[in-house]
Each structure stands twice: as structure tokens, then as C-alpha cells.
Amino acid sequence: MSDKRDEILKIGEDLLRQNGYNAFSYNDISRPLGIKNAAIHYYFPKKSDLGVSIIHRNLQAVNDLDSKYASSSALARLKAFMNVYVESYKNNKVCLVGALAAELYSLEEDVQRELKIMVKDTLAALTNILAEGRKNGEFVFNETPRTKALLIITNMLAALQLSRITGEDDFSIIEKAILKSLKG
Fold first, then answer.
1. Beta-strand runs (E) in 30-169
2. Which helix (H) or strand (E) holds 113?
3. What is the predicted pLDDT for the residue at 1?
4. Which of 38, 46, 52, 130 has the most crowded Cβ, counting Cβ within 10 A?
5. 168 three-state secondary structure
């Protein structure tokens, strides 16, 4: 990947996660890079191309994380998964899914489709971690692994958004409660 393309992706994602997909334009990306909008259009002819690429980049990060921790305990894998949200919290950003879900019906069809794939794959990865952890005795919970995964993802996603409003350490409280809920 070219450095310029990567810079465009990073700034685009930052803007998306800070302000929302519909709240930024190519001009908001070109200004800090000191380039013309045409340079962005070279890499991403349409905004939906940029949106899809941002989703792919994040899905690849989830897959890389899953591969990196594949031989680790379920608890270590879960903490690595949750750390993605922790880093977002530290950088005052909502998660990509939360940012895009809020605008789902105004997104282009290809962005909607890729977002749904990302959610499906992320949910499957977390479900597998939880199923393995329950099977080997690391986790205790009554729900199905998929239901517990849904509860974790929705709690982390909402915690990022809510903590922006409350200004409190609610994110950390929710993170700790999730881990405690897995002890039975």
C-alpha cells in the first residue's frame, strides 16, 4: 500500500470515527495532507470506495489479531479483542461499527454490505473465543456463546459512545463488569 493511500485511509477513518461518515468530505482529508482532492480521487474515486477500504482495513486488523493470539488462552484472546475498544476509548473515538451503524440507511449499498460482513466476521471471532473459553473452563456464563458475544460487543460499542457524553470513567466500569460476568 502506498504511503499516501495509507495516510488518506487513516485520516478518513479518524474523521469517520470522530464525526461520522456523512460529516466529512474529501476536502477534510486533503487539507491536512496538503494535497488536492483529485489526489484522493485517484486512490478512491468515490467516497464509498474509501468507506469500503476503511472497513476492509479494520476487518483485516481483526483477522490479524485473531491470528496473532490463536495459540493464546481464551482470556488473552478476549482481552486482546477488548483492547481494540480500549484504544478507541483512549483516543476519544467511537468504534467503526458504531459510527457506521448510526448512518446505515444513508450509506451506499457497497458500504452497507461490507459493514454487514465485518460485523458477521467479528461476531463469529468473538463467539469462537467465548465457546472455547467456556469449553476449557476459563469462562462461565449461561447464555449461548453467540448471545454473550452480542452482549459484549453491544456493551463495548455503547460504552464508547456513552462515555463521550458522560465524561465519566463509565467505559472502564463496563469493561471490568464484562470480564467479571465471565467468571460466573
1. none
2. helix 109-135
3. 57
4. 130
5. coil
Q: Is 11 a member of any domain?
A: no
Domain count along the chain: 1
Q: Is the pTM of this model over 0.85?
A: yes
Is there a domain that residue 41 lies in?
no
What CATH number does the domain containing 128 carry?
1.10.357.10
Q: Which domain holds residue 154?
A: 47-181
Q: Which helix (H) or strand (E) segment is 76 a member of?
A: helix 74-90
Helix (H, G, I), strand (E, B) or coil at 22: helix
Three-state DSSP state, 140: strand
Residues in the chain, pLDDT under 50: none
Looking at residue 184, its pLDDT comes to 64
Q: Grid coordinates standing for 179?
A: 470480564
- Rounded distance, CA 108 to CA 180, Å? 39
Q: How far apart are the C-alpha atoms of 139 and 9, rounded to whole Å?
A: 37
CA distances from residue 141 to 16, 115, 130, 168, 181 in whole angstroms, order as listed: 35, 28, 9, 28, 7
Pair 15, 93: CB distance under 8 Å: no
Q: Yes or no: say if 130 and 141 are a contact pair by the CB < 8 Å rule.
A: yes
Residue 128's CB is within 10 A of a number of other CB atoms, namely 16
